[in-house]
Amino acid sequence: MTSTGKWTDGVEGVLLDITGVLYESGPSEAIQGSLEAVKRLKEAGLPVRFCTNETTCTRQVLVDRLKGFGFDIKPEEVFPPIPAMCQVLKERNLRPHLLIHPNASADFSDVTTENPNCVVLGDAIHEFSYANLNKAFQILVSLNNPILFSLGKGRYYKDEGNLVLDVGSFCRALEYACDIEAEVVGKPSATFFNTAVKNMGLNAEKVVMVGDDIVSDVGGALASGMRGVLVRTGKYRSTDEDHPTVKPSAIVNNLSEAVDILIKSRKPNWDGLAELA
Amino acid sequence: MTSTGKWTDGVEGVLLDITGVLYESGPSEAIQGSLEAVKRLKEAGLPVRFCTNETTCTRQVLVDRLKGFGFDIKPEEVFPPIPAMCQVLKERNLRPHLLIHPNASADFSDVTTENPNCVVLGDAIHEFSYANLNKAFQILVSLNNPILFSLGKGRYYKDEGNLVLDVGSFCRALEYACDIEAEVVGKPSATFFNTAVKNMGLNAEKVVMVGDDIVSDVGGALASGMRGVLVRTGKYRSTDEDHPTVKPSAIVNNLSEAVDILIKSRKPNWDGLAELA
User: Residue A123 is part of which domain span?
Assistant: First the structure.
């Protein structure tokens, strides 16, 4: 544990990343202690929201998966990029060409995709084929004002024990090809984080984000005015601890340890309240 | 013709891009006038070298293809990236993992690829699959000092009438994923251009490069101290004429027009010589 404990001062709400913090993907299993950790946060009266860049399934499937592990989580507590993306498309009257995972397409069912005037990239996994990347490129390059959205900008993540390329890396290929900059919907966008923060009725400085991605989770949280705690689970690599620009508020072994420290730090207040009573 | 003609002053040698300047790829055919243009350059006593980022076939296949169109070209006049890459690998004792087009692999036959300590990207076309990109990424991320080479850094090119992603775009994906910068072997690397320039026994300021890629050909040539002429064939797009940073020495309709202007600009000297005789 690298922190001095001060990262807990004044924390009134918690944002949690899902994959790599609550459970490991492929082989899919809850991370030891994470089930109890979420329960303890809720029992301590701390509001919790789940801020994920998961785009390989619908929100409902994700919630069902978490419930399957035993997590007590409601759909409205989970903030994935696709609902936020659909809102942006609607507001700006945009018709996307979707390069996304087929399992997530149901969450775009209300969106018009004919005669596209922008491209949306999710974590398409095997759909990131040479043909599909070229198709997305050709649509962008045919537009007078090419608009590219990326659902997150992660570099890589861990799947079945291997690190694999994430949507951000494929986004870079299209950005370079078209000489444009993508708009990110998802972490580390401050706009995206703030939706979840506001949903708790809090300001960013009262919130801590716990994640396994040094850049998207921790860096994004810090840039958005929150605390950012890095866990040594999921995609974590030891080199993350020496990141040249992102200095986490704390580095902990796992979510359970972060919650231990946070709950303990709140104890004196309760004792104080008890004395006052 | 945009130029004032001054780009021809003092030119003593010519570098030509191949695809998009000598011939159009898919459907593969010589560009009108290019056959005669090369012949006229040689007849005028101007040394000519062919500087290409072609990595989808061996140098011999490329030369045979050009001969098939009727071009009078010797293998030693053609400078593709792979021989230069093999030289670098040898000098630095590197063993590459190759993500290249299968048709080019013969030109790497002398290179040890077991237990790789670097990655080489060529224009792998359909081999740029999700699986192969991940494999290259996993090798890089496993190295203490990840080294990535890219044979050129083109954004896109024209194939069968469609613009398709070039090696530079896929390189960007891996650069971002690994947080590294690739070393470019091929255009627009000045080291690469200079090999061909020196082979003519000239200095860069006496040489003009003619190409259809505003960045790799024209921008690269200008940055290397040469003149850079853009042709309106191949991957050329009208927006290239307003490129924010690269200002070509001249823009011509095709190679034939460039050679017309160059040969005519030399006429007065010959007349002068004739008068002196």
Answer: 81-184
Strands A162-165 and B23-24: unpaired
Domain count, chain B: 2
Identify whether residues B180 and B191 lie together within a single domain.
Answer: no
CATH of the domain at A233: 3.40.50.1000
Is A175–B174 a contact, with Cβ atoms under 8 angstroms apart? no
Question: A179–B128: do the CB atoms touch at under 8 Å?
Answer: no
Check residue B277 and give its pLDDT: 46
Pair B148, B159 in one domain: yes
User: Quick check: is B13 in a domain?
Assistant: yes
Paired tokens of A219:
């860096």
A129 to chain B, any CB pair closer than 8 A? The answer is yes
B242 touches chain A (CB under 8 A): no
Q: With contacts defined as CB-CB under 8 Å, which chain B residues touch A177?
A: 155-156, 165-166, 168-169
Q: Contact at 8 Å (CB) between B167 and B175?
A: no
Chunk chain A into consecutive blocks of 10 residues (it has 277) and report each block's average pLDDT, rounded to whole numbers: 69 96 87 97 97 95 95 95 95 97 96 97 98 98 97 90 95 97 96 95 97 96 98 94 96 98 79 51
Determine how β-strand B96-99 pairs with β-strand B118-121: parallel
- The residue among B129, B161, B184 that closes a domain is B184
pLDDT at B108 over 60: yes
Position B240 in a domain: yes
Q: Is pLDDT at B104 greater than 90 in this prediction?
A: yes
- B141 and A125 within 8 Å at the Cβ level: the answer is no
Residues with Cβ within 8 Å of B105's Cβ and at least 6 positions away in sequence, in order, are: B98
> Cis peptide before B188, with omega less than 30 degrees from 0?
yes
Asked if residue B63 belongs to a domain, the reply is: no
Nearest chain B residue (CA) to A127 = B130
The residue behind tokens 């000489």 is A179
Residue B206 has pLDDT above 80, yes or no: yes
**Whether residue B256 has pLDDT greater than 90:** yes
